[in-house]
C-alpha cells in the first residue's frame, strides 16, 4: 500500500527574530508519529537538543506566564540546578542577583551576561515585560558560553522574545490584581513593660562591677535614679523618656516594674505607620498572526505595584512590535522594537544605607518600645496637631543614645522624596541571505538606549538637609550597540552532519552622567533646582567601552550518536592596554548518545541516554573601571577660583581579564518514554588572574593604599542533579514532580606577590579557604559563675595573668574582646541548595507550586546582634534577651546585662553566626480553563481564570532571619522581599 506523507510545521522557538522550525512526519494511514526534533537556543543560533554537548537549561514562557513578577530575574529562582539567587528586595520592580556555578570572581562582577534576541543587554531586567518573553536559556559551561568570550565567565542567560506565528490571527488580553505584603516576619522583641526592668538591670550590674564595694542596695538605688531622668548627683538619665504615669525614680524598684504604673499613651509602634498592605495590578494585550511570508507580534502592557512600605512603588508601560518577513525565497528580514517607560518612588537602599538615620528598616526594627514617633502634650498626654490639623512628630530630644535622638524616620520618610523615571528603547534587526542550500549569511544589529532621571529632595524640617532643604538631580544615559555578521554552513553527508559558524562582532557602550546638588530651599512644594539657592555640586562625565571579537564554531555528529563541538573566539577589550587587550577563548566538547546505539534503539525502558563532557576557557573583563590600565586623577578639588586635581587611581598597565577554565561532565537520561528524565553533572571552574586590591605602604602616597592586580587563583566545583517525572499521565489527569539540587565547593589556591591574606569585614581570603569563609573572634559562651561574656583567648595573651584572662572547664578564655582569638568560623556557602515542585492538571484545572531550599552554611546575623545588646540605651531588644544570665551557676548563652562589659558582649564574633538552612514556598498558581467547545460558540478561543502567589511562606533557623539576602552570608537592614497574591484572567479571541 502506498503511504502518503504530509508535513506539519511546528514552530518551536525563536532566536533573534528568526523562526526556528521543526517538522514532524505523519502517515495518513498509520496512527504513528515520529518524535519532533526539539530545538533549543544556543549562542548565535539554535541546535537540536539531542546533539548538544554543553550544559544549559531552558525555561519556557508557560512556566512563568501566570506569575505576578515584574522582572524575569524573579523567574530564575529555582529554575535550574547550579543557579543560586540572592533574593531581590521588596522594592517594587527590583531584580535579584544571580550566580551560576559558584563565585566567579572576588573583586569584580560575578553576574551572568544577558543576551536579548542575539544582542548583549546591559539594562535593567525590569525593563523587559515578562509576558513578551518566549523563553530563556541558562548557559552554564564553556561549551555553551565560549562564543561570548571575555564576558562569559559567569555564565550566559539568553532571553528570547515572542514572535508571531503563521495562520489565524490571535488576540489575547489578560489582567490580574492583588495585594502586596511583607513576607519575612520581624524579629520578636520585648514590649514596653519588659523593657525598663531590663535596662535597669544592666545599669545596676554595671554599677556593681565598677564599684564592688558599693553594695546591692546602693546600686539598685542608682539604677532607679539614672534609668530615665537622673539627678545632679548621678548625672543625666539613660532612657530620658518615661511613658508610665509614675515618678521616673520609682518606675523600677528592685528590678521590678512599679505595679501601679499605667501607660500614658500607647502609640509606640514605629512599623505600623510605615508598613502596610500594598497593591498590584497588571494588564496585558497582544495581537499576533501572519501569512506564509510575514509574521507579526505586537503587545502593550501596564504594571503598577505599590510596596508594603509607604512611598515605594513601580509603574511601567511597555509597547513592542516584532515583524519577520520572507521577502524572497533566499532573503528573510525582521525587526523588533520595544518602548518602555517606568516610574517609581524609591525606598531607601538598606544595604548602602545600613546604619543611616533615614533607613526605615533599621529604625522601625531597633527603636526601643518606649518611644512614640508622635509629639504629646506634657500635661494631658494627648497627641499634638499643627495649625493645619496634621499630627506632629517627636523630634527625638527625649530619647536615649541608641534611639536616633534628634531624628524621626517616619516623618523624614514622609517628607523626603526619591523619584525615578526611566525610558528605554530596545531594538533589534536582522537580515538572512540563503546563498545556497548549505550556506547562510546573516547580520544582526541591536541598539538599546536608556535614560534614567532621578530626583531626590531632602526636607528642611528634620534630618540631614535641615534647616535649609536640599535637592539632587541625576541624569544617566547609556547606549549599547551590537553588530554581528555570521556565516553558517550546514551540510549532511550520509550519516555525517556538519555545522560551521564564522562570525564577527562589534560592541559599543557609552555612559553619560550628569549630577547637580543645591541647598537652601526658597518656597515650599517645589523641589526643582531653580528653587534652591546654593549650588554645592555640579558634575558630569562620559565613559566609553568598546569590544570586538571574531569567533568560530564547528559542530559534528554521526547519526546523532557521536557528538563533537569546538569553538574559539578572539576578543579585544578597551578596558585594558593594547599590549594585553586581545586574547583567545575556546572550548572543546564531546558526547555519546547511547540511546542511538542499536542495542538501545528498541528499548521501551530507556528513552534517552547521553554522556557528554567539555573543557574550555572564557573570560571576565567586567571590572569596576572602564580604564583599568590608566592611572587617573580626580577633578573638582578647587580652592575658590584656583583649580585643583587629586591623584585618584594608580593603575597596573599589565592588568587584564580574569580567565575561567571550565570542565564539565554530565549524563542525561530518560525512562519510560521520558516520563522520568533528568541529568547528573560535575563541573569545575578554575579562575586565574583574579583581580585583587594589593596593599601598598602608606608612604607610597597612593589613594586607598592599594593597587589592582591579577594576583590570585581559585576554583569552584560541584555536582548538579535534575529530575523530572510524570507520576500520572493520562487524558484527564497528569501529575508531575520536579526537583534539582546542587553542591558547591569554593577555594582560593594561590595569592601571589607576597600576599598571604586579605581581611575584609567578616571574611578573610587566604590559600586553602573559600572567599566566603568567616574570620571572626571566637565566642566561647557565658561564664556560669558571673555571667561574663567569654572568648577563646588569642595565643599572644594565653600565658598572661591579667584579670580578664581566666580558665573555664580547662579552657583558657578572656572576657576582653580585644584579646580574643580570631579564627575561621565556617562558611556562607551551603552544602546543598535547589528547588522542588509539582504541577497537577485535572481536566480544565491546573495547579503548580515550587519550593526553594538551602542546607548548610552560616549567616552572620548582624540584625539580630543589634537587638541583643547587654546595655541598650534606647534600642530595641530581642525576646531572647530574657534568657540572660542572672544567677550564679545558671547555664545560658546570653551574658548578664551589664553597662560595664557590654562592649565585649556585643562585639563582632562567631556568636552571631546561625544556620542558613531554609525552605521557602516560592510560588504557586491555580487556574481553571473553560471548555473550548463552549467558548467557540461565544467567539472565544480561550478563557482562563487564575490565582497566583509569590513568596508565600518560609522557614528559617530564626524568626526574622533572611538567609538568602546575600551570597556572602551577611544581613543588613533592608527592604525584605514581598509576598504577592493576585487573581486574574486571560482571554483569547
Automatic annotation (TrEMBL):
Q: What are the entry keywords? A: Cell outer membrane, Membrane, Signal, TonB box, Transmembrane, Transmembrane beta strand, Transport
Where in the sequence is the signal peptide annotated? 1-19
Q: Tell me where on the tree of life, at the top rank, the source sits.
A: Bacteria
Q: Which residues form the TonB-dependent receptor-like beta-barrel domain?
A: 427-880
Task: Identify the residues that the record assigns to the TonB-dependent receptor plug domain, covering every copy.
Answer: 49-156
Q: Which InterPro entries does this chain map to?
A: Beta-barrel_TonB, Beta-barrel_TonB_sf, Plug_dom, Plug_dom_sf, TonB-dep_OMP_SusC/RagA, TonB-dep_OMP_SusC/RagA_CS, TonB-dep_rcpt-like
Classification via Gene3D superfamilies = TonB-dependent receptor, beta-barrel domain (2.40.170.20), TonB-dependent receptor, plug domain (2.170.130.10)
Membrane topology classification: Multi-pass membrane protein
Query: Where in the cell is the protein located?
Result: Cell outer membrane
Q: Which family does it belong to?
A: Belongs to the TonB-dependent receptor family.
**UniProt-recorded name of the protein:** SusC/RagA family TonB-linked outer membrane protein
Organism, by scientific name, is Chryseobacterium herbae
